[in-house]
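Prompt: For my understanding, could you write out one protein's sequence and backbone structure tokens?
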Amino acid sequence: MEESKNDIKQKIRERYKGVSEDVLDVIPATPQEDFYKSEVRKRVGIYCRVSTGDPNQTSSYELQKNHYEDLVNRRANWELVDIYADEGISGTSLQHRDNFIRMINDCRDGKIDLIVTKSVSRFARNIIDCIGYVRQLKAATPPIGIFFETENIFTLDENSEMALSFIATLAQEESHTKSEIMNASIEMRFRRGIFLTPVLLGYDHDENGNLVINENEAKTVRLIFFSYLYGYSTQQIADALTELERLTKKGNNYWSSQSILGVLSNERYCGDVLARKTYTPNYLDHKSKKNNKNRNQYRHKEHHEPIISREDFFAVQKMIRNAKYGNKGYFPEMHVISSGLLRGYVSVHPKWAGFTEDDYYMASDSINEGISLIASKPIEIEVHKGDFDLTGYELVRSEFMTTYGQMFVTATSSILSFNKASILKMSVNTQVRKVELWVYPNKHLLAVKPAPNDSRYSVEWCKYPSGKAEPKTVSGSAFLPTLYKMFGWRTERNYRIKGTAYNTRDGTIIIYDAHNAVMFVEEEIADKRKKMVAFPARWADNFGDNYYKSKAISIDEEEKEDDTSDTPDSIYKIDNEEGVTTHEEAAKQIADIIKQMGGPKDG
């Protein structure tokens, strides 16, 4: 028979009455150590820190050390292990706090029993670091305590952590407030055009702190820029300056590729000052990051006398950006086709990222200057007796049907992939391994044509490993971001565009219409990622063009097949390249500067 609830409750009450004190012996715990009265021998580590490297702080630094040496000497049971001192280091991060880390390691190695420091903020202004290390040391065997003198907190006291957490939080917030005040002060200085101008090769500071050219050092700067414009690599320039024994601003005569790149990238050489190139997003770790429009930037143009022309400086920046794409020569030219089917198309340089969207538009428009637009005569379709009247009917777009046998190119923001149908169409009579890319920006058209043997703009779009054509992806990291902008595409999406082939005297040309591109979208459906095709919104109300309009277009395209060959005999010069030192001028400047230097050992 089951016990009733009342019986169970009664048994619990009886059990909790306890036992007689006569049969229970109490073994007392070791009394908690009294920090102030303890006579136990202690090996003591002292931690000191001053937050700036200002010489005026040296007195504070020395006073702390002297104070704690006296403190240890007054306690007969204390033995000084070492004074661990960090000078000119912030307390919000452990980065560069070498002596703090050394002290913690000595604790772990059993060399320290007690740490003494002035205050919680001296120990750490980061609450996670502060509480974390306190708990680690407390959990050691035997436990290691920390005594914060100002706050009168001893961490081995069981009631210390709540007070410590509160004070550590206040210390961290104080650092946060100081950081915000400093950032606000910097922002106000920048808004008023008050910029810091650290020491820089080629310049000295006058009595007012303004940059003035140091002509002897300026020779080195000019030699670096003209050599890079001529086509020398940063390593070749570094080797040459080392051989010439030219000195850096710090007085070293050894140059590296990175130090040359630093000179080439510094806008102050063209007379400008760009403020806030980097910023510190987290006041706790003090790690600086490149400012990619995360914070306001300020450029003061013509702030001081330049050593290098503005045109040369920005030309060098373009060359630096393109070095990673294998482009080592001087500025490539923008070719525009002046006649034929591809009139107005602009060459796409596969390894040059310096051309902008506007450059392509202006280059294409340049071929039509002084020419009036003459409207073409409408092509009329005659409907014979007995024919079906297809007025109002539409030809369904092939993109809605099977893609088998159709010519397509698929694009991401970094690669192009032409399908096999495109390659076979162009390679009917001969194998075409390399092609050139041409773009008509106004109509969002991309053309592909066979590349001549001497073409400097060709890309390999296929291979023939066993005599049969196999598509090969085309790297487009240099030019595709610009085409994406031109076509109004989203960089995170992939696109597919259909091509149409045309026969010319120079061979087959394929034109892909980016205006009718379809987009691939990945969506998560039922815990699975599925790729779907998204069509242009303007297709929502129809399946394709009117039948007779499509017929007229196809007749017009057939007439284009007999058009003249395409002649890229027009070269478009980018406006912002005007004034850039030419290849020949750069060579002359290099020779003159080296002659002025008088050979090696010239300051």
